[in-house]
Amino acid sequence: MFRDSFQHRFVTVFSSAGSKPLAIWDVHTRNGNSRRLTDEDIRSLAFELAGVNVATTYMVAPCAPCPSLSIKLPFLVLLLKNMKKFFSFEVQILDDRDSLRRLRFSNYQSSTRIDSFSTTMPLSLVPNWNHVQLNLAEFIRRTYGSNYRETVRLQIHANVRIKRIYFCDRLYTNDETPSDLRLFPIVRPNRLVQMRAQQKAAKFPPEPIESVRPPTPVQDAGVSGDQPQNELVSAAQCADGVEL
């Protein structure tokens, strides 16, 4: 399916927020149901698989008649929610010996069991949403001593809620991962809030300082107003001291 596609960094095989999330998937719900809903914890769309029997309620990619996903990226990432019920998923891999190996992960297994062409391993999930990262190449190398070539098939069983499933070429940090591939995308602030925060505070003129105005000097009625009062007083005192 993806053999002729350019596989660089990230390849998404399931997105619950897409217009056609099951475009490459077949869903089987015997004694179970499947639906898309809005999860209250992440406030985003999620696809739910629920059933009484884990083996009879599942979704598988690729859908018929395509034989293989043909994804060469070795890291598998699943954004899923722990429903506190039995849950499992399978990955079918083609190695460099042209042998099909099946890796099965489940939360109800307590030990690892390795057969000639299949391996069953326990899966530990925390409550609520989980960010599961699997190095498929490392699993194949350790269990069978061969090299990873491509992922052929992916099968998800009940009971789980899924937001996104994608493959990548290496493990990326949360800052390196694009926003749409994160479990909790970046919340962008409102543009109006940003504009208000960037506005400078209005500058108001300083309050006027009240000051006492000096009193107006009183002038003698017989003296010209052009001559200062102090000089007039001194002149009068000198005149009084002169003998005629």
Automatic annotation (TrEMBL):
<dbReference type="InterPro" id="IPR007714">
    <property type="entry name" value="CFA20_dom"/>
</dbReference>
<feature type="region of interest" description="Disordered">
    <location>
        <begin position="203"/>
        <end position="244"/>
    </location>
</feature>
<dbReference type="Pfam" id="PF05018">
    <property type="entry name" value="CFA20_dom"/>
</dbReference>
<protein>
    <submittedName>
        <fullName>DUF667 domain-containing protein</fullName>
    </submittedName>
</protein>
<dbReference type="InterPro" id="IPR040441">
    <property type="entry name" value="CFA20/CFAP20DC"/>
</dbReference>
<feature type="domain" description="CFA20">
    <location>
        <begin position="1"/>
        <end position="184"/>
    </location>
</feature>
